[in-house]
């Protein structure tokens, strides 16, 4: 409007001036050339900050161990360095973090993390184009369905998890009760991983297992109240209930509601999927008695042979036990160490090539994951058994596969 | 043929009413602010979150209320969260919010009236992220046996924690209603809300009235947060999940009507839970918005609002 | 409305800005900065789109994410399901956005103020859940290794900068065009006083809908390009509250209702937030949010109206006269100069004389239980100066509101110049040739006096130049020619009344409704206005005036009607009316009638 005459240049000048602000600090890049840099991008702020912080703990521990033991031998004992970036609370921030690390740290040889699968998707859009090998625990099928060559999923995909989980559960149930379950209830949230897990079940997975879904509910997290959900379970009485929830608060509401409706403690056997079912904060908020016997399948969980590391982790971090997020980040850094030894050069292309050729069955890296560390052409691991953990005396411990289990599973009967 | 049984229906209705009780209380808190200051407070959810943490630390962290046991402690803690957050609200209003709100600002069309949106968003960011630094990222919850026990009426189970929080919410709502309609201070607040100019002429200190309304509003919402904390887990970003519910409830009830805010919040709870009887569970929040839109189209002044803002 | 010279300067500013961005993109040489610059430009487009509706019309939208998200999903799903390239789907987003705008606006524009803002909030959130339900949690745009350019997948980030810049320039040009046309004037008038705008003949509904559709189209196109840049589309990222909030924060921060405000907001805040994330996010997670929050609060406390307005105020205070260019009309017209002959456009007032101009039959209207108008019959002859008086609450203003279409009567018919106007919208009534003023002056305080009147003149003018001419004529007519460039907010009560009269007269109506134009004026002011009203009447315009004080009316009108409790209780020449006992009773109560009867005896 006329009352405010515009001055050309004022705005443009102001604008351009401010755009330069973030450049100031970053320009002073760290002046180290020797160490080999690995990136960790994880949500350190925002609603998923807890998971990111757990990953950081794991990755930092692996780094220290490797460096204390003499770094990368093939490279003259070169030390590893972790470059951390916050993926924040949106895919945009996650992508920016990836682009920033790549711009500031041109000598990165690889990276890990992103946690939430949509963050991983957008981070890897950047890393793929930069041909940077990227390891991730995110298990959405979409991540390795895009024909990318530099993305490696250390967790089995959700599809695969679904296909593995159900038959194992049936086996366990049959062995314990002498009866094969006929009906199943499914309660899941609608985040990406549970959705692809559930899709596998509905598109033939259940039929193959001879199961009929009598409850099939998908909710949007966060749940305000689990009553209508659990009420449906009460009415339909499935032989067992499969819970696919990716956030601890929802697990809490459902578990408590099942107990309140007298369906807990084995009345309707419960199988969870995902790491939140084994989180220390779940124990803190609902106590051990409700959790006793709860069985859940999970991509990765501490196993036999890692006792020493688990103890050190607990001591160092003050966490009551080791969980998937820290464990895989720890394992991923070890995988990079193995790949670097094989590549014999701090070069991302060679490291990627080395990862493609890995077939590890022993050593610290292999100890972190069930099955061999071997990737197919899509970047997925092959021959991965599903891990089952069970709450026994207030701690979730691995009970399957048998060769890596810390204890025997039991089937909770009411 | 109905896709659900009578028990399902009653159970969902009960769940809706109980969930709605907490919603109703937080809506009243927001409604007082919105109704008297015409301020869109984006930080309201974060004050709710502060209420949750205040109750949490009072119950568990410092052990202050441990002597009250797992039943009484959390409820008393929820109440105590109110004054704490009230005090914080007072300070924030005194030094920040008052500078972009109030009768003087509202007069100048388009001036400070916009500033308040940014200011409350800024406060929201500070509380969420400050909360992350102070409280950590691990989700926590107040452990009370009530959250997994129920009273049974026939086949319908009523969760104890939610029943208690519902009753407390209703009692508090009634108290607020009496306060606003029967005390001098309350009447002054309402006068300042209806017509700030006239209130100034009547000798009411509008800025002080606004400060009280603001602090009272965040304090009441914080108590609602403390009650929610007895049955839900939370982390520093949890408040955001309730912002939409609160606004929907307040608008449904009708701006400026505290009575309406209560019913609006309750209705949101009922719609949210009962929609699951006929709609996919995933659409329960879509159902809220559809009802919300329907009501404001059919009755733009809300269920209990007056027509004052229409022209 | 800007003069051409100013519009030209804005064009140069836009060009300069574009050149600067291009130059910046050439020197950055860092993909990360290039990515952030791309986002800055895209968010600026969204914020400009928001500003187009909310900044100009004052209808705040808390839900612009709905357009942004629909754009992103149009591109993503088009590519996945139909293998359509973004080159096709991004332009198509404009249609999607405009359509969504129409569908949303149709019901939602029934609401105003906070209700509108909060209702808008509901749309993106409701849709968010629907997209999750449909299974579109994560949609990744497939990588096209064979024909990347065909699918808008460039190795060089600068191409995206160029695309986003092109979009931003388009958005700026559209905004500039809107600002400088009657579109923008209409929106500004709506923002400042919607009923007045409607009464001045502006079809507020139509302009609001157009603004929302245009805004939606722009936002959707930007959202489409955002999807291409981000490559991964999730419901939370594109429909979430943060997107809607971003649109308004940037504009509020930079300066609402200005061309450059949203751009400044994006240029400052997007890099600021990202820079803080980068520098602090891995050191003490959360601290970046705290610092950002403190920063935006601090800045907005210093510049509550936004950075742009603040800077401009500073600059214009430093150099007051130099920055204010003389406006074309202002210098030429001097006040109470002899009135130029009115022969611009078609003088509506002279279309027909003689006979009954306005006829009300049995007009009845109730609010709840209260009968505000009760069977009112009224005939206003053409060319007359007709008065309606009545005590407070008699229904006078309600009667005007019924005549000019703010209220529809429950019963009864209104005809004007022989045609029924019952149930028409105010802007349509205005177009038929009925102007009005308001009891509480409804000015557009942040527009100049001339702009205020131009808004009224649009109805009778075929083009903007004619409108301007008609407005100047009307201003001269009421003796405000010399105040054309003053902001309406700075006028005295008398001047405001005159300005409002000029606004009503500008389109050259046949009938003007004056609502207590004389109330609260001192003697001298009163005489001046009475003179103007008589002059207007002498020009052949019929006048219907309401007052609650009889005093001034008696000198002015030739015919009186007295309204009480929604009913006509007397009609006749002023001298007769003041002696009518029922009138005295209505005004002073029964006691007075008795007393008068006594004194008469």
Quick overview:
With 414 residues, chain A is α/β, with parallel strands linked by helices. Chain A is built from 15 helices and twelve strands.
Walk me through this protein's architecture:
The complex is a heterotrimer of chains A (414), B (311) and C (601). Chain A has helices at 10-19, 21-27, 49-68, 91-104, 117-129, 158-177, 192-209, 227-236, 248-260, 280-286, 288-291, 307-317, 324-343, 348-357, 364-367, and strands spanning 36-42, 80-86, 108-113, 134-136, 151-153, 183-189, 212-219, 240-244, 270-273, 295-298, 387-392, 395-400. Chain A has 414 residues and is of the alpha/beta class. Chain A folds into two domains: 32-156 and 306-367, Rossmann fold; 159-298 and 387-404, 3-Layer(aba) Sandwich (Rossmann fold), CATH 3.40.50. In chain A, the strands form two sheets. Chain A has a seven-stranded mixed β-sheet with strand order 7-6-8-9-10-11-12, with helices on both faces. A five-stranded parallel β-sheet of chain A has the order 2-1-3-4-5, with helices on both faces. In chain A, helix 9 links the parallel strand 8 (240-244) and strand 9 (270-273). The N and C termini of chain A lie far apart (76 Å). Mean pLDDT of chain A is 88; it is low at 1-33. Chain B has one domain (7-304): ABC transporter involved in vitamin B12 uptake, BtuC. Chain B is built from twelve helices and two strands. Chain B is globular, with a radius of gyration of 19 Å. Chain C has 25 helices and twelve strands. In chain C, the strands form three sheets. In chain C, strands 8-9-10-5-11-12 form a six-stranded mixed β-sheet, with helices on both faces. A four-stranded antiparallel β-sheet of chain C has the order 4-3-6-7, with helices on one face. A two-stranded antiparallel ribbon of chain C has the order 1-2. The longest helix of chain C is centred in the N-terminal third of the chain and has 27 residues, at 31-57. At the A-C interface, helix 1, helix 2, helix 3, strand 2 and helix 4 of A face helix 1, helix 2, helix 5, helix 12 and helix 14 of C.
């Amino acid at each position: 409007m006329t009352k405010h005459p515009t001055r050309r240049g004022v705005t443009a000048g102001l604008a351009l001036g401010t755009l330069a602000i973030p450049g100031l600090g970053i320009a002073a890049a760290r002046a180290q050339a020797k160490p080999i840099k690995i990136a960790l991008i994880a949500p350190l702020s925002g609603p998923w900050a807890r998971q990111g912080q757990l990953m950081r703990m794991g990755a930092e521990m692996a780094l220290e161990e490797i460096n204390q033991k003499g770094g990368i031998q093939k490279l003259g004992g070169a030390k590893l360095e972790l470059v951390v970036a916050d993926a924040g609370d949106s895919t945009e921030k996650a992508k920016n973090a990836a682009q920033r690390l790549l711009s500031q740290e041109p000598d990165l040889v690889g990276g890990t993390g992103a946690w939430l699968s949509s963050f991983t998707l957008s981070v890897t859009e950047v890393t793929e184009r930069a041909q940077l090998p990227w390891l991730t625990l995110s298990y959405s099928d979409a991540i390795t369905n895009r024909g990318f060559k530099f993305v490696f999923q250390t967790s089995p995909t959700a599809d695969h998890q679904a296909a593995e989980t159900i038959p194992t559960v049936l086996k366990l149930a049959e062995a314990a009760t002498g009866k094969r379950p006929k009906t199943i209830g499914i309660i899941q949230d609608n985040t990406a991983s549970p959705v692809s897990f559930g899709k596998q079940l509905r598109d033939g997975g259940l039929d193959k297992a001879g199961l009929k879904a009598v409850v099939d509910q998908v909710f949007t997290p966060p749940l305000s109240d689990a009553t209508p959900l659990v009420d449906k379970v009460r009415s339909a009485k499935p032989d067992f209930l499969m819970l696919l929830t990716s956030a601890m608060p929802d697990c809490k509401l459902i578990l408590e509601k099942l107990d309140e409706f007298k369906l807990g403690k084995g009345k309707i056997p419960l199988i969870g999927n995902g790491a939140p079912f084994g989180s220390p904060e779940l124990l803190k908020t609902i106590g051990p008695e409700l959790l006793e016997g709860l069985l859940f399948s999970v991509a990765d969980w501490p196993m036999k042979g890692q006792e020493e590391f688990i103890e050190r982790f607990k001591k160092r971090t003050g966490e009551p036990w080791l969980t998937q997020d820290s464990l895989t980040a720890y394992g991923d850094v070890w995988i990079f160490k193995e790949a670097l030894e094989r590549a014999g050069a701090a070069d991302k292309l060679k490291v990627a090539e080395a990862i493609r050729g890995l077939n590890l069955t022993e050593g610290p890296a292999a100890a972190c994951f069930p099955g061999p560390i071997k990737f197919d052409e899509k970047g997925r691991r092959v021959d991965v058994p599903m891990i089952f953990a069970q709450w026994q005396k207030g701690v979730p411990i691995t009970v399957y596969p048998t060769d890596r289990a810390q204890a025997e599973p039991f089937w909770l009967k009411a | 043929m109905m896709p659900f049984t009578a028990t399902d229906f009653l159970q969902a209705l009960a769940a809706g009413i109980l969930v709605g009780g907490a919603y109703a209380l937080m809506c009243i808190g927001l409604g007082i602010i919105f109704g008297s200051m015409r301020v869109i407070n984006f930080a309201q959810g974060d004050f709710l979150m502060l209420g949750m943490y205040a109750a949490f630390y009072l119950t568990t962290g410092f052990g202050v209320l441990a002597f009250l046991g797992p039943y009484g402690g959390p409820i008393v803690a929820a109440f105590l969260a109110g004054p704490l957050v009230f005090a914080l609200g007072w300070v924030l209003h005194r030094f920040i919010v008052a500078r972009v709100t109030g009768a003087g600002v509202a007069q100048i069309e388009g001036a400070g009236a916009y500033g308040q949106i940014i200011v409350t968003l800024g406060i929201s960011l500070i509380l969420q992220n400050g909360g992350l630094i102070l409280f950590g990222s691990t989700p926590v919850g107040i452990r009370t046996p009530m959250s997994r026990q129920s009273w049974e009426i026939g086949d319908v189970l009523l969760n104890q924690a939610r029943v208690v929080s519902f009753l407390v919410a209703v009692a508090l709502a009634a108290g607020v209603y009496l306060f606003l309609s029967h005390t001098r201070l309350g009447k002054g607040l309402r006068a300042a809300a209806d017509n700030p100019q006239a209130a100034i002429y009547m000798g009411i200190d509008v800025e002080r009235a606004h400060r009280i309304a603001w602090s009272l509003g965040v304090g009441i919402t914080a108590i609602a947060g403390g009650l929610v904390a007895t049955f839900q887990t939370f982390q520093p970003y949890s408040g955001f999940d309730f912002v939409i519910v609160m606004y929907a409830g307040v608008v449904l009830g009708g701006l400026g009507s505290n009575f309406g805010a209560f019913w609006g919040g309750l209705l949101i709870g009922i719609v949210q839970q009962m929609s699951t009887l006929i709609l996919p569970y995933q659409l329960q929040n879509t159902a809220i918005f559809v009802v919300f839109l329907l009501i404001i189209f059919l009755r733009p002044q809300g269920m209990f609002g007056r027509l004052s803002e229409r022209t | 409305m800007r003069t051409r010279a100013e519009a030209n300067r804005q064009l140069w500013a836009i060009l300069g800005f574009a050149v600067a961005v291009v130059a910046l993109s050439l020197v950055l040489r860092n993909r990360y900065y290039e990515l952030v610059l791309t986002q800055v430009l895209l968010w600026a487009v969204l914020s400009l789109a928001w500003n187009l509706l909310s900044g100009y019309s004052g209808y705040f939208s808390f839900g612009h994410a709905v357009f942004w998200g629909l754009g992103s999903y149009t591109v993503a799903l088009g590519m996945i399901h139909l293998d359509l390239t973004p080159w096709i789907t991004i332009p198509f987003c404009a249609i999607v956005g405009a359509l969504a705008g129409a569908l949303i606006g149709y019901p939602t524009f029934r609401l105003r103020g906070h209700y509108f803002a909060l209702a808008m909030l509901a749309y993106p959130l409701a849709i968010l859940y629907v997209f999750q339900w449909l299974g579109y949690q994560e949609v990744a745009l497939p990588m096209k290794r064979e024909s990347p350019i065909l699918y808008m997948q460039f190795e060089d980030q600068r191409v995206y900068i160029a695309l986003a810049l092109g979009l931003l320039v388009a958005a700026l040009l559209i905004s500039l065009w809107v600002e400088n046309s009657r579109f923008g004037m209409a929106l500004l008038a709506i923002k400042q006083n919607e009923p007045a705008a409607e009464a001045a003949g502006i079809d507020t509904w139509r302009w609001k809908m157009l603004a929302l559709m245009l805004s939606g189209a722009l936002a959707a196109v930007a959202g489409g390009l955002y999807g291409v840049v981000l490559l991964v589309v999730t419901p939370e990222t594109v429909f979430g509250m943060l997107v809607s909030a971003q649109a308004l924060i940037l504009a509020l921060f930079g300066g609402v209702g200005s061309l450059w405000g949203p751009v400044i907001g994006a240029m400052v805040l997007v890099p600021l937030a990202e820079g803080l994330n980068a520098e602090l996010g891995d050191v003490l997670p959360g601290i970046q949010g705290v610092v950002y929050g403190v920063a935006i609060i601090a800045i907005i406390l210093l510049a509550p109206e936004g950075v742009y307005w603040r800077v401009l105020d500073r600059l214009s205070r430093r150099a007051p006269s130099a920055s204010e260019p003389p406006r074309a009309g202002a210098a030429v017209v001097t006040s109470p100069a002899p009135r130029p002959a009115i022969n611009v456009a078609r003088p509506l007032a002279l279309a027909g004389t003689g006979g009954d101009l306005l006829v009300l039959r049995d007009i009845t209207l109730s609010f709840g239980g209260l009968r505000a108008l009760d069977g009112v019959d009224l005939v206003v002859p053409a060319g007359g100066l007709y008065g309606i008086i009545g005590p407070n609450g008699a229904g006078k203003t309600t009667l005007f509101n019924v005549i000019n279409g703010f209220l529809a009567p429950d019963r009864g018919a209104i005809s004007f110049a022989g045609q029924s106007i019952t149930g028409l919208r105010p802007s349509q009534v205005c177009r038929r040739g009925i102007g009005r003023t308001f009891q509480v002056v409804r000015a557009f305080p942040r527009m100049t006096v001339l702009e205020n009147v131009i808004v009224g003149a649009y109805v009778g003018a075929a083009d903007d130049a004619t409108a301007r001419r008609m407005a100047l004529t009307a201003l001269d007519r009421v003796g405000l020619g010399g105040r054309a460039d003053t902001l309406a907010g700075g006028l005295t009560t008398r001047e405001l009344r005159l300005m409002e009269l000029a606004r009503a007269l500008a389109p050259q109506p046949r009938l003007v409704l004056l609502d207590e134009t004389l109330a609260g004026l001192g003697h001298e002011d009163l005489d001046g206005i009475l003179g103007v009203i008589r002059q207007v009447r002498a020009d052949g315009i019929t006048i219907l005036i309401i007052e609650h004080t009889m005093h001034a009316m008696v000198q002015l009108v030739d015919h009186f009607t007295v309204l009480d409790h929604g009913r006509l209780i007397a009609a006749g020449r002023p001298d007769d009316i003041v002696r009518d006992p029922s009138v005295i009773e209505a005004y002073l109560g029964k006691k007075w009638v008795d007393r008068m009867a006594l004194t008469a005896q």
